[in-house]
Input
Amino acid sequence: QRTPLALEDSCNAASVPAALTSLRTSGVAVVDNLRLTEVNTMPAADSMPTQLLRPQRQQRRRGPPGANMMQADETWRLSALGRYHRLENHLGDTDIMVLEKIERQLWPLVEGFFREQKENGESTTDNMDAIFRSELQLMTAVPGSGHQSWHRDNRSRGLSIIVPLVDFHADNGGTQLLLGSHVEKWPLGARQGARVVHAPAGSVVAYDSRTIHRGLDNGTIEGRPALIFCYDRKVSPPPGCGTLGSVATSYQGRMLDILS
Output
């Protein structure tokens, strides 16, 4: 199902305190009033794939479906069919400067999230030196891309942020999340089910790293690019689980999606 998580839903937040409340209850918050635009000056965006790359027979390799479609220099890493990622170590100085300018606008939300005083009744440190940026990337899902498997970014509490560079909606495969799956209490997830992010370009989609989610297939004729920022505690780096844990999360996500 592709029920939208629209701006009119309770996950919509007009301020950092409202976003923190939504993150605490549903695990997800959409902030529309930032409308970040600096990405237009990123050189890396000019080389972004716009379609499925053809197999390179001379460099076929083992890996996930479509892994043999990667570019030879692997500047754009393929994670699943039609999903290309340019990680921080493949970004130039100008790209990093642009992204860190955006990050400064995101920081009040990041800081507020990690300064939460209580988590499941236990005190948590408010030392921001214990927080690190675990991921920074530019990604795109080209036309014809496939579903991701259901997964968590981390088994421990952290914050993931997506900044859509085009409008996200069900047709182009906007991120699908199981609300409430960031805590081991499933009534919310089972009641509300999976929701697909509907958000305009430049908005901020934040979710607790424990939230079960996936990217959907892109059924349009245009790509679906986005920026991704992830933040975690140094004592609990991602992903926080092995292969068996990832497989279990994938099945858990499928079952919740079906039951809801």
About this structure: Residues 66-73 have pLDDT under 50 and may be disordered. The radius of gyration is 18 Å.
